[in-house]
Amino acid sequence: MVQLMSRMLLKTLRDAPADAETVSHRLLVRAGYVRRSSAGVWTWLPLGKRVLENVARVVREEMDAIGGQEVLLPALLPREPYEATGRAGEYGDLLFQLTDRKGSAYVLGPTHEEIFTQVVKDQATSYKDLPVILYQIQTKYRDEARPRSGVLRGREFQMKDAYSFDTDDAGLAESYRLHREAYVRIFTRLGFDYRVVSAVSGAMGGSASEEFLAPAAAGEDTFVQCTSCAYAANTEAVTTTVPAADPAAHGPLEELDTSDTPTIDTLAAHLGVPASATLKNLLVKVDGEITAVGVPGDREVDLGKLAEHLAPATVELVTAEDFTGRPDLVRGYIGPQRRSFPYLADPRIAPGTAWITGANKPGKHARDVVCGRDFTVDRYLDVVVVEPGDPCPSCGAGLEIGRAIEIGHIFQLGRKYADAFGLDVLGKDGKPVRVTMGSYGIGISRAVAALAEQTADERGLCWPREVAPADVHVVAAGKAGQTELALEIAAKLEAAGARVLVDDRAGVSPGVKFTDAELIGVPTIMVVGRRAAEGVVELKDRRTGERTELPADQAVVRLT
Ligand code: ATP
Ligand code: MG
Ligand code: MG
Ligand code: MG
């Protein structure tokens, strides 16, 4: 069906929402693709839904091609399995939780490892039932601390999550390889510029893990890549456990009042150091988690640089109450390997999100407080600064540093979930075999925004053809006969297999229609205007701006 703009629920906006910080947020709202419902929760309008479906279609095709079987699990899940694996605690406030009328505890699924494991435990009994790859495209819920950037980081969002089940390590490696290759095909087809980088396995547990990152200024991930070899890694990928600080070694405590909310400058003044000073054991609370900017070896935190990065953020002090009653925080900390990445660019220390403290009493702060004595943390962020041009750990050539959006993530989970739920199948010898798993995510809704980030220009969205809401946007300039011709051409284009959007709106000036067409970003714009009476139309390539005038019939042939 030709999509008629006169009938479509579509209103383009001249101005972006005041809080829109990113290109995709501004443009997807202005062009009428999405509409905010509440913080981090979005309505997909007709144009947006088409793009979302196009992304989902490509993902489905490639998942099916590696033998994935599509299923659909509930989003409303009992809390118990997430308790069993400890992930309820790990996810913490990220988890949306609710209670039913009988008092039973539920969560809205943030990701489904637990539930898929239970499904396979129910369904698979023998090694003959494996390997199996299951996937779904489904709504996920995470109560993100900072649901900004429009659909890039939603609290409700669409994810493709897949899970592989194998009887041995070689099988898992093969399932992982299949997914990796499928992801390469998916992101290539979608029109992404992307990198595959090694990643930390984080809350998922497990070992081998890679992320698919789409370089973009709006990204919240930082990665390094070698200018010469294939080395690329997420900043999170290089952490390892290092010994906790020696509780005995501590300096004098100097209390300060925290009734105000100091900026980094006032913090520096409180601490009695210049804003350019270096500090050790600087604590940050990021996304609600107490974290320390740690100091491996003799490297120190440069407060001046941190200030620069945080500006114009408000830096809040936290109090010792954050640490009291939290024995779980006494676990030592995870620190860096010798070489790591710039804490200044760590996405978790993004502007407006860091709280800095050195707390030892409620409401008080001190310098030279000591980890393990005055407080404990479960994790240190590394602060070794890597400057562009630093040597690549793999080949020694220069490193570059970039910002990117995480669009996909693949994990070899191993037996963590199978152990938690006792997922065994009968092996060839009749003895039970513990199953080994992988999990593989793609942010479907995030991919829409990430593509917008990478492809938009100053005039608006500019979709790669595979995901565009239409192939051709026919603009009827509006004079007598032009709309009729436009509809006639549109019908021919559709009959020949093209997806067509027609701007047949009456009483809208040609100028507004052209501007809207650029904003909406369909790859080819056809103008039925000035020379319509002669049967001549103009084709404009949205990306290059290249224009060609040609007879309508030839245009149809060229576009199909
Ligand atoms: P991020 O680091 O951006 O918070 P994540 O590592 O927590 O993402 P995963 O648990 O790996 O995310 O989920 C798989 C994929 O789901 C991610 O690679 C990303 O594309 C997408 N995704 C995760 N969180 C969100 C969100 N809040 N909004 C939209 N997409 C998301
Ligand atoms: Mg996350
Ligand atoms: Mg991540
Ligand atoms: Mg991830």
Automatic annotation (TrEMBL):
UniProt-listed GO biological process terms: prolyl-tRNA aminoacylation
Catalysed reactions listed for this entry: tRNA(Pro) + L-proline + ATP = L-prolyl-tRNA(Pro) + AMP + diphosphate
InterPro entries assigned to the protein according to its UniProt record, in alphabetical order: aa-tRNA-synt_IIb (IPR002314), aa-tRNA-synth_II (IPR006195), aa-tRNA-synth_II/BPL/LPL (IPR045864), Anticodon-bd (IPR004154), Anticodon-bd_dom_sf (IPR036621), Pro-tRNA-ligase_IIa (IPR002316), Pro-tRNA-synth_IIa_bac-type (IPR004500), Pro-tRNA-Synthase_IIa_type1 (IPR023717)
Keyword Repressor in annotation: no
E.C. numbers: 6.1.1.15
Principal localisation: cytoplasm
Keywords on record: Aminoacyl-tRNA synthetase, ATP-binding, Cytoplasm, Ligase, Nucleotide-binding, Plasmid, Protein biosynthesis
Domain Aminoacyl-transfer RNA synthetases class-II family profile, residue spans: 50-464
Localization terms from the record: Cytoplasm
Record-level Gene Ontology MF annotations: aminoacyl-tRNA deacylase activity; ATP binding; proline-tRNA ligase activity
SUPFAM superfamilies listed in its UniProt record: Class II aaRS ABD-related (SSF52954), Class II aaRS and biotin synthetases (SSF55681), YbaK/ProRS associated domain (SSF55826)
GO CC entries: cytosol
Domain note: Consists of three domains: the N-terminal catalytic domain, the editing domain and the C-terminal anticodon-binding domain.
HAMAP family referenced in this protein's UniProt entry, alphabetically: Pro_tRNA_synth_type1
Record function comment: Catalyzes the attachment of proline to tRNA(Pro) in a two-step reaction: proline is first activated by ATP to form Pro-AMP and then transferred to the acceptor end of tRNA(Pro). As ProRS can inadvertently accommodate and process non-cognate amino acids such as alanine and cysteine, to avoid such errors it has two additional distinct editing activities against alanine. One activity is designated as 'pretransfer' editing and involves the tRNA(Pro)-independent hydrolysis of activated Ala-AMP.
Record-linked NCBIfam families: PRK09194.1, proS_fam_II
Similarity-based family: Belongs to the class-II aminoacyl-tRNA synthetase family. ProS type 1 subfamily.
Subunit comment: Homodimer.
Protein name: Proline--tRNA ligase
